[in-house]
Amino acid sequence: MSLTDSSPEQIAKTASVASTGLAVLSSKDRNDALTAIHQSLSEAKETILAANAKDLEVASKAAADGKLSQSVLKRLDLGRPGKWEDMLQGILDVRDLPDPVGRVTLKTLLDDDLVLERITCPIGVLLIIFEARPEVIANISALAIKSGNAAILKGGKDSTASFHAISTVISSALTSTTVPNAAIQLVTARDVVASLLDCDKHIDLVIPRGSNELVSYIKSNTRIPVLGHADGLCTIYIHPDADTQNSIRVLLDSKLGYPAACNSVETLLIHEAALDSHLPAIASALLEQGCSLRCDPASKATLEKSLTAEKAVLLQDAVDADYDTEFLSPILAIKTVIPPADTSDDVALSLAIAHINAHSSHHTDAILTSSSALAARFKASVGSACVFVNTSTRMADGMRFGFGTEVGISTSKIHARGPVGLEGLCIYKYVINGSGQTAGEYGGVHGKKWKHEALASK
Predict the structure, then answer these.
(1) Does the predicted model carry a pTM greater than 0.85?
(2) Taking Cα atoms as reference points, which of 242, 334, 240, 321 lies closest to residue 283?
(3) Which of 28, 88, 159, 430 has its CA 20 to 30 A from that of 166?
(4) Per residue in 362-382, is it b (16+ CB within 10 Å) or e — as a string?
(5) CA distance 228 to 233
């Protein structure tokens, strides 16, 4: 890894050259580089956390002055319980995954001594633009090196000291490996994002990680393909047959496990028939842990008559905009699903699905139900990247999926969706091995015939 203040075009050209060298390294060479990075970061823990503390001090003052959101402040903190350990473990988990490069996913005998193969390969050069997420440097470095991609990283000003400390350690670690140091570059110059977004000749994919404003800006200002999501507007629907205690556990984790995360639930849809049986216990548990509830008339009426006066007074009235808002804080919008009288469960489910598909950001949505039929229909009908049954939306995470870590979450309807790990950073190429054949030999009345026989790809 190198820290660079070169011109954007030079940065992109350097990364493109480095990507060629990285792509041909053996799996062992790339794995050895991850081992070296892990060891160096482990040894530099105190230095890195001290640098992070400086960032936190400045950011805390900015948050106190209303210039920085609490969600950004939380994401900045590398000392949050488990965050440092998860970052380091993610590097080892990625290292130990199967090599995603060079896998033959299709093999066809076109004719004698003429074989077609589809082989996985790196994308090339990645541009990752992120805000207040210092662990991203380690995550991206691990995933990029393992998948054979060069990466250009541009971090936000809130994490400058952390970025420099981590980058310096990784750069030093790579000098003892065969990975080109320029394969991972941290851009230190300011006001270069717009120019980097113009380097479509050398940069193959942009991955933004940050606010809605950042992602929207990038999508609107580049010709380079963009992988990511602008919002994490996640929804949970509770059907009357759901287990009440499980519902409480799932809601507490989904909303309050880490409210600033993009996989935190923001909207609770609840069937009218579950208002009395499920909602009071769920709401009481959420309120006890400091969660604000913004209720529609039906849910509020139920809670006002069932909760204690001390808790009921905390309820707020929801407005339409609440169901389109990513709060990133301990706030939950509640909406009642009210099907027409004497209709089947399918009708209520259809209403819930319609709301999700209209208001969700297609990140992660879940249903709580004991009906396998309703669950199957929910999974088939909700068009989100992650669709869960009877579990927390917080499960949407590369580490939890077994990917080691992730470069981010994709809500785009492309080859990579949900938490994007190694496979999402690889594409493929078609390779033909022949022995002098020409296309003109085949077809027509007297031409040679294709065999097109499927061969084992392993």
Answers:
(1) yes
(2) 334
(3) 28
(4) bbbbbbbbebeebbebbeeeb
(5) 14
